[in-house]
Amino acid sequence: MKPLAYRMRPQKIEDIVGQQHLVGPGKIIDRMVQARLLSSMILYGPPGTGKTSIASAIAGSTKYAFRTLNAATDSKKDLEVVAQEAKMSGTVVLMLDEIHRLTKPKQDFLLPHLEKGSIILIGATTENPYISISPAIRSRTQIYEVKPLTASDIKQAINNALADSTNGLGKMDIDLTSAAMSHLTQATYGDLRSTLNALELAAKSTAPDPNDNKIHLDLSVIEECLQKKALVQDKNGDAHYDVISAFQKSIRGSDSDAALHYLARLLEAGDLISVNRRLLTIAYEDIGLANPAAAARTVSAITAAEKIGLPEARIPLANAVIELCISPKSNSAISAIDAAIEDVRQGNYGDVPDTLKDAHYQGAKELGHGTDYKFPHDFPHDWVRQNYLPSKLKNKQYYHPKENGRIETAFKQQYELLRKAQK
């Protein structure tokens, strides 16, 4: 009776779907496994993205004993059992879910075992570990971000489950339509656990067709089992991305009614995550310095939406969308940083001027580092003329301010005043 997502957990590193920045050939976790030099780590990221799968695969690839505990519900005595096993049989890989809820007594018990390496801890959390996990644990672990799976990752995992006759659904003759597959790959926003469990529910709750004895899973069946409606039924499976694209372009084009229409479609599909991410991007990419306060209010609206959830989340989000549409627009900030990044990528950069180099170490003075630096706060108006760019980029301009709105107009005046004085 174990769910499909549990049964399909990878047994080896090479079987992991997604997270190739960590487990791909030559990447950090793959190197640890190949060298059998494991170190304790914390994996953080959204639910269903493979944190437990990575831990299971590490243990399977290295042949170490593997134990799973939950920091919130399992006791210190459970940790003592794992430590005793490690003492008797050697290294144990311990997957500790919800590690951000580890109490101090449990933490104090674990620390010496992590120091010795008898327990290789793989902590999993959806919280930011730099905020939610104690410094004592953080200092003894490596921290890696686990990212939401892409649609192609999810599709690969679905195909694996449909083909696997031992742990998957391979013994069932399942016909999954392309529209149903597309919805499965997109509707859970990278949560593979939810995807596979919905697929299993659909397969086992749908009677075979008496004409061909196949289990036909169409879009309506998958919508019911996921409890999420598809945005539209399109043959190419691009509707999700098309609606998000239209949403941003409508706000960029200052059309409030169109933007609200696409917001409604996304919310009706239950896609609060994409709405929030896209609004944050729009606020800084398309409105930017023309109205910085709008970006701050967008962040507040998204925070409120996340706290109250749907359907009430529609209210602060509608406020944000309308304000962003009506607001003056400017893409000067993204254009500026992209121009600077392009210079760096092309190798168009030089040495940091000696006056700006770090002078807080012995011997810096002899090298001439920081000796002629002028501290702006020691001068009238807290400003003094000196060179900050590398000499080969002297007078380079990345930021080209616009006059769309009184705020960036004021920024432009001050920027040009400072630039003229610098020259």
Automatic annotation (TrEMBL):
It holds the Pfam family AAA. It comes from the Bacteria. The keyword Magnesium does not apply. Residues 37-149 form the AAA+ ATPase domain. The keyword Nucleotide-binding applies. InterPro entries: AAA+_ATPase (IPR003593), AAA_assoc_2 (IPR032423), AAA_ATPase_RarA/MGS1/WRNIP1 (IPR051314), ATPase_AAA_core (IPR003959), DNA_pol3_clamp-load_cplx_C (IPR008921), MgsA_C (IPR021886), P-loop_NTPase (IPR027417). One of its GO terms (biological process) is DNA-templated DNA replication. Keywords: ATP-binding, Nucleotide-binding. One of its GO terms (molecular function) is enzyme activator activity. Belongs to the AAA ATPase family. RarA/MGS1/WRNIP1 subfamily. PANTHER family: ATPASE WRNIP1, WERNER HELICASE-INTERACTING PROTEIN 1 FAMILY MEMBER. This is Recombination factor protein RarA. It comes from Ligilactobacillus pobuzihii.
